[in-house]
Amino acid sequence: MDAKLNAKDLINVGLYTAIYFVVVFAVAMVGYIPVFIPLLSVLVPLIAGIPFMLFLTKVRKFGMALLMLTLYGIIRALFGGVWELLMAVVCGLISELILRASRYGSVKMAVLAYGAASVTIFGNYIPIYISRDAYYARIIEGGMGLEYGDALMRFMPDWSAPALLVSCFVFGILGGLLGKAVLKKHFTRAGIA
Amino acid sequence: MAREILSGDGGERGLALDPRTKLLLVFTVSVVLTAGGYGGAMDYARPALAAAPFALLLLSRRWGSAALYSAAYMFLYCAEMFLVPLTYGIVNFFILATCGMFSRFMPGLVMGHFLVTTTTASQFMAAMSRMRVPAKVTVPLSVMFRFFPTVGEECSAINDAMRMRGVSLAGGRPLVMLEYRLVPMMVCGVKIGEELSAAALTRGFGAPVCRTNIRKVGFHAQDAAAILLCLFGIAAYIGWLAR
To answer: Which residues have CB under 8 Å from A43's CB, separation 6+?
Structure first.
């Protein structure tokens, strides 16, 4: 097997990153109701598991998962999510190493790799925890209103940081299992995955 | 539906900006408007940056998009000005949060739309290789940029089909709704991906040689103006952060 990524692999990476980004973005839109902001660590990993698991069926070489998450991070950074780029690179590397340990052949390891990849979503929350006051001021001044800011701060106490981190991972695993089930139901039968 | 492989719809209408300038504009507009507040130089930078996508859409003769963007922005602005003082409680909260969020996110998204629709994949690749970005990054990135508008088209087509079949949020089965939208979307994606890679390979994409490019990319006076605007926006943002 050729270890270098060829044109087809690179095109697949681009394609699935686009689908993944659109799905994550669509789900994240519900975050404009403050109570949903912490819930995003549940919803996003769960739903985005479907496209990600389909992507992982195409991954047979080192670097594809890392490249995908890095590209996702770059697009997020373009829209202001610099922390998420950092998380994406770190989680992408971990996820890639998990896949490599299983020689890109095990479905169980793929689910675990997606769990690791999902921790990327936590990058969105980092600014709230490390600079709470500045973040609060930014929301109020930015025009979201006092109530939105207060509600968000109430739903995101400091102790919730580890909980959300774990939630990203656990629901990533569940999302991976959901993705696996959907693949089995639709794609394996159609000969796509 | 035209699905020209690895080349957007030309984008040669009207003003021509370098793809790198467009990337800088997307970054500046979205970061300064979403993360920045008000006061000082920001009071000038915000309207200038919010107007930038409108001006660019006009200059590249995309009248429809320009009209839509300005109408939506005006509507949000007026709603924030006039509806917010009139309401209170939960309604006020929703109007404020909706207007606040969309008026801050929309310019960045419209700028992204402008980047994607006015840049051909060739131009993008040429600009990126000038910046010495490796092909491992540029190829997937240009596929993504090419693919975003397609995802939108497919989504709305699938949405129509599903509404006709009565599969919607109102049906009360969110999982079914999700499955019936995501799965067709991904099947489309897989098919388009296969077509794209076949076409790209035919064009010698995988060849182990240096690609040449007939597109000329470079910076001109209009790029300088746009970059100056970005620098002003970033300076205002840094000033606001450090105040």
So the answer is: A27, A30, A36
Task: Tell me if A145 sits within 8 A of B103, measured CB to CB.
Answer: no
> Residue B3's pLDDT is what?
39
Kindly provide the ipTM of the predicted complex, given to two decimals: 0.80
Dist. CA B70–CA B80, nearest whole Å: 15
Mean pLDDT value of segment B212-241? 86
Residue A73's nearest CA partner among A61, A59, A90, A57 is A90
Nearest to A100 by CA among A66, A62, A64: A62
Q: A79, B34: Cβ pair inside 8 Å? A: yes
How far is residue B52's CA from residue A192's CA, in Å, rounded to a whole number? Answer: 43
The stretch B64-84 carries a mean pLDDT of 87
Residues 6+ positions from B239 with CB-CB distance below 8 Å: B40, B41, B42
Local confidence band at B1 (pLDDT 50, 70, 90 cut-offs): very low
Farthest-apart Cα atoms in chain A, separation: 58
Cross-chain residue pair A22–B35, CB shorter than 8 Å: no
Q: With an 8 Å Cβ cutoff, are B197 and A12 in contact? A: yes
How far apart, in whole angstroms, are the C-alpha atoms of residue A85 and residue A118?
13
Q: Which range scores top for mean pLDDT: A24-38, B54-68, B84-98, B197-211?
A: B54-68
pLDDT at B243 > cutoff 50: yes
Please state, in angstroms and rounded to a whole number, the distance separating the CA atoms of residues A30 and B161. 23
Beta-carbon contacts of residue B123 (< 8 Å; ≥ 6 apart): B11, B19, B215, B217
B186:A147 CB<8 A: no
DSSP SS3 for B132: coil
Q: Are B84 and A148 in contact (CB under 8 A)?
A: no
Positions of E strands within A62-170:
none
In chain B, the largest separation of any two C-alpha atoms, in whole Å, equals: 65
Please tell me the predicted confidence (pLDDT) of residue B123.
84
B143 interaction partners in chain A (CB closer than 8 Å): 10-11, 13-15, 18
Pick the residue of B33, B124, B147, B179 with the most A CBs within 10 A to test the interface with A by mutation.
Answer: B147
- CA geometry: angle at B56 spanning B51 and B58, to 5°? 95
Q: What is the pLDDT of residues B118-172, one digit of tens each?
A: 888 788 888 888 888 888 888 888 888 878 878 888 888 888 888 888 776 666 6
The shortest CB-CB distance from A18 to any of B92, B147, B182 is to B147
